[in-house]
Amino acid sequence: MTATYTFDDLKRDVADGRIDTVLACLVDMQGRLMGKRFQAQFFVEGAYEETHSCNYLLATDMEMETISGYKATSWEKGYGDYTMKPDLSTLRRIPWLEGTALVLCDVLDHHTHEEVPHSPRAILKKQVARLEAMGMKAFMATELEFFLFDQTYEQAHASGYRNLKLASAYNEDYHIFQTSKEEEVMRAIRNGLQGAGIPVENSKGEASAGQEEINVRYADALTMADRHVIIKNGCKEIAWSKGKAITFLAKWNYNAAGSSSHIHQSLWSDDGKTPLFFDKDAEHGMSETMKHYVAGLLAHAGEITYFLAPYINSYKRFMAGTFAPTKAIWSKDNRTAGYRLCGDSTKGIRIECRVSGSDLNPYLAMAALLAAGIDGIENRMELEPAFEGDAYGGKDIREIPHTLRDATALMSGSPMLRSAFGDDVIDHYTRAAQWEQEEYDRRITDWEVARGFERA
């Protein structure tokens, strides 16, 4: 069961000396936790109302560089403040950090106190509100994959990320003996997350040497996104505390499988009691609502890919025969398809997006999927027949964009996304994608040097 940790609980823990630090965190464009460590007494006496951060936090790249070209913030505008408003419903103890609690914050305009439209949490909340107005509620689950290494982050950095030693020497998919060797880390992750109020289902070995997967119980979309960012941060912190390192890169090595974050989706009545995707009398148990929703996902598959695969590296994962999809089609219980029907003919019927990588921002990914699905429902889009067979070898069928450059153009030019998110939001993330491409285009890779040093 999910633990409920209230503000009153925090105040008691602070008074009793059990909690001395509160992490107040916003989620940045990359899905990372950014914020402040509060002396707990100060937090409960007033900082729980609000705090502040520089507004560049939602206009940087992975290196925290200030980037030109953003309308929302710049050197010309002086890089002012955002207001961070703690959402006390997200408050929780963090068992793997001594005497520590954490709360996620909404990001507000410093002057109007309205939510900043391009903040990831606000983007998802807007799509959730659209569903609520339709009498619907989205439930989602993300399956996070990652690689575990025997070096520390410091050692990996010092080596230039070369000659890294994986926690396993061989494919450990569902492998009990190999994962027994990794239990010091994985048990700490499972128990730590459970203690932080995130209901863990299981962990398992994945389809490559050193690859792991952590699965937690599904929840409403916003709660699941909140869990997702805490899981990623927690996995890294726990691994670091054990002298290990974890990467959520979508494709860390050419010879290794990619890492995904499959997103399971279903719609229910607003009271959460009636599955709106299920019709016991329909083929596969798919209701008309589900058919329209999935049709929307497929119709806008190219446009939303950026939010599922946001970096240059993300597109290295889409390789045939690796369990990562290359085609944006749907199929029944078929792991070669970009969208897989699961739980057919049961109340647990859902659609699994397999395009999404472990490097995504969950708020942006879920919001994009919901926006596409809502458009399918509103326009009563007709679902194409299910694909059968090996999608890798399928001819003349819808493909996933091959590069970040392609995905950026489709996202920027999408009338659906501009209507759902707003022009300023899409322009903001278009600039983020363009900068990622510009940075890559001017870099010299080891592969180029090795290939051409002598022979060019």
UniProtKB/TrEMBL annotation:
SUPFAM superfamilies linked: Glutamine synthetase, N-terminal domain, Glutamine synthetase/guanido kinase
PANTHER family assigned to the protein according to its UniProt record, in alphabetical order: GAMMA-GLUTAMYLPUTRESCINE SYNTHETASE (PTHR43785), TYPE-1 GLUTAMINE SYNTHETASE 2 (PTHR43785:SF12)
Protein's recorded name: Glutamine synthetase
InterPro entries in the cross-refs: Gln_synt_N_sf, Gln_synth/guanido_kin_cat_dom, Gln_synth_cat_dom
Record Pfam families: Gln-synt_C (PF00120)
Cofactor(s) named in the record: Mg(2+)
Keywords: ATP-binding, Ligase, Nucleotide-binding
Originating species: Pseudorhizobium flavum
Family: Belongs to the glutamine synthetase family.
PROSITE patterns: GS_CATALYTIC
First-level EC class: ligase
GO biological process assignments: biogenic amine catabolic process; biogenic amine metabolic process; glutamine biosynthetic process
GS catalytic domain sequence ranges: 120-456
Ligase keyword on record: yes
GO MF: ATP binding; glutamine synthetase activity
EC number(s) stated in the UniProt entry for this protein: 6.3.1.2
